[in-house]
Design goal:
Helices cover about 5% and strands about 55% of the residues. It is mainly beta. The chain has helices spanning about 155-160, 160-165, and strands at about 15-20, 25-35, 35-45, 55-65, 75-85, 95-110, 115-125, 125-130, 140-150.
Length: about 170
């Protein structure tokens, strides 16, 4: 059954890649309703951006999506948390630490409904609360590309006001 696109609706699930200055990872986003989504990420960082050593991070984020007049555009913001395996300063020591902390995210996404692919940019600062580390800058800036799964109703796209008026 096809899903109608109204008020910025997107299919309920998207998966793709998110690149940052020090690595990349997998991102998945699930929409409960058009304005509320959950995003999960698994990021790998080489540790060269800030010279602090390689890491692997699992992130979960609850996001509010602000839909613009043209529903292809949306801004998103929300809180979350992470768990990280980090090999801090590998030239000095050779052990991994486990870090747990909080994250926040703010970004902008454009969804090409006809394809259906979304491209987003974001800022995702993180703060750790284990082992005395206070900030985790490696995954702060991101560029993501997601393929959205779900039915697209071409009639709904053709009847959108912003398509007809060129807005």
């Amino acid at each position: 059954m096809a899903q109608e696109i109204q008020n910025g609706d997107v299919p309920p699930f998207g998966i793709g890649i998110r690149a940052n200055p020090d690595g990349a990872g997998i991102t998945a986003k699930y929409f409960f309703i058009p304005q509320i989504s959950f995003e999960g990420m698994v990021n790998a960082s080489g540790g060269t951006y800030f010279g602090s050593g390689p890491s692997t991070t699992i992130v979960g984020l609850a996001e509010y999506n602000l839909i613009f007049n043209n529903p292809s555009w949306r801004a998103f913001i929300g809180p979350g948390g992470h768990i990280t395996s980090w090999k801090q300063y590998p030239e000095i020591n050779n052990y991994r630490q486990t870090l747990i902390g909080i994250d926040g995210i703010i970004g902008l996404e454009y969804v090409f409904y006809e394809v259906p692919i979304g491209i987003s940019i974001d800022v995702k600062p993180a703060m750790n609360f284990v082992n005395g580390v206070t900030a985790f800058p490696e995954n702060t800036f991101g560029l993501a590309v997601r393929y959205y799964f779900g039915g697209w109703n071409k009639g709904a796209m053709e009847n959108r006001d912003d398509v007809e008026s060129g807005r």
